[in-house]
Amino acid sequence: MNENYLTTSHGAHVGDNQNSLTAGEFGPVLIQDVHLLEKLAHFNRERVPERVVHAKGAGAHGVFKVTNDVSHYTKANFLSEVGKETDMFIRLSTVAGELGAADTLRDPRGFAIKFYTEEGNYDLVGNNTPIFFIRDPLKFPDFIHTQKRDPRTHLKSPTAMWDFWSLSPESLHQVTILMSDRGIPATFRHMHGYGSHTYTWINQTGEKYFIKYHFRTNQGVKNLDSSLAAKLAGENPDYHIEDLSNAIEHGDFPSWTLYVQIIPFEEGLNMKETLFDVTKTVSQKTYPLVEVGIMTLNRNPENYFSEVEQATFSPGNTVPGIDVSPDKLLQGRLFAYGDAHRYRVGANSAQLPINAPKATVHNHQQDGSMAYKNVNGSINYEPNSFDGTVEDEQAKSTNYKVTGEVGNYSYNDDFYTQPGLLYNIFSEEEKERLTDNIVASLSLVENEEIKKRQVEQFYKADKDYGERVAKKLNLKI
Ligand code: HEM
């Protein structure tokens, strides 16, 4: 006999789940049918707000294994010795689309990792591109508005998109990557991942290094051409989620090798304009990639909502030996994510199994909606005289000097050198596809001024770049 009884959420067995309780065979439904009321009411509450960006994504569990000794650069315990393994969870996503959007749209891809280290969670919340569209957090909501729907028509607006980009020349580098072949990865498995910002590593003796993270896919980079991507968007909008899940299901575990570029701290302070500007890359000739370890994804989530939808990642979640940098965009992000989590998942989102660290949590934050891990005992304050919590010197953030006058600063107006260099790395065929992709989108803009302003940006990066786009648009500059 099956004793797997259906119950209410309070554990009482349910006698009838097919017919509601009515007054007589054809009578009205009774309010005393508590099971019906609970079921309908809970259903109404099944959704939490989708992420305001990166709403659509896939998640997977895995393991990170150190393959190279980097302990002289960072005291982070999870990187302390070759062979050390740390459980992790990744969420891979598109940026602009809603929860049900197609996976194969031209868009950057999110690459967010949570390492469950012995010293607490370390979150690395990056993208599949080494740079970003803007470099000041003040511009983020405006930028995202142009990527999302027009408030009047509820349609995507190429005009808003190119208007904003053409007026924000710092976006040119990322726009060039987005419109290139890499703008539509073949799958989540076939793309690199980047921390994008500069971060700081600190070793046991307090020496500091600026570092840039690069996850290189061991599946090789593969991309989709625009027409196949459009076809797939119609045939299978969940193509990327399905691909990742199937690969893991069949034991074909995808992996990435993590490398870092390491820039000595003082040297880094002399190249602030590049290092703290997320629209710029740092030369790999000068600062070559140093291997750190391998990340392998080996387990699918059991439940999408619990593990993927409710997962929360924040660039502010760091561990001793790893710190942020003065990059303005990163600084803005340190506020934005925790705030989003408190709104989207709740004040106690960090207590959920997917977000909770494996390390002991012992602080005096308490109560609030759905708190179920309040610390036992009476000592809910620090400092205290009763063997309660104490601070750890090792975890103090590292000092460095800042000077200057308060102001709204703009810096380094060279928006064109790096996009120009990138353009010239592309082969003839790649340049053709890049400019075709740009024109397919830019030609949807009716305002001639916007088109001209954007084409001027391409010209400033490289004459041929500008000329190709202008020619394909039949535009006289
Ligand atoms: C998600 C804000 C720049 C990568 C999010 C979310 C917010 C946000 C509010 C939703 C979080 C949630 O609901 O859980 C911002 C702001 C930025 C910024 C204000 C600039 C000031 C960036 C950059 C990157 C990035 C530069 C990559 C280098 C991601 C990723 C996610 C995300 C991967 C999805 C995380 C997940 O899978 O849960 N961002 N973002 N963002 N952002 Fe950003």
Automatic annotation (TrEMBL):
Key words of the record: Heme, Hydrogen peroxide, Iron, Metal-binding, Oxidoreductase, Peroxidase
Record PROSITE patterns: CATALASE_1 (PS00437), CATALASE_2 (PS00438), CATALASE_3 (PS51402)
Top-level lineage group: Bacteria
Listed SUPFAM superfamilies: Heme-dependent catalase-like
Metal-binding found in the keyword field: yes
Similarity comment: Belongs to the catalase family.
Protein name per its UniProtKB record: Catalase
Organism: Vagococcus luciliae
Gene name of the encoded protein: katA
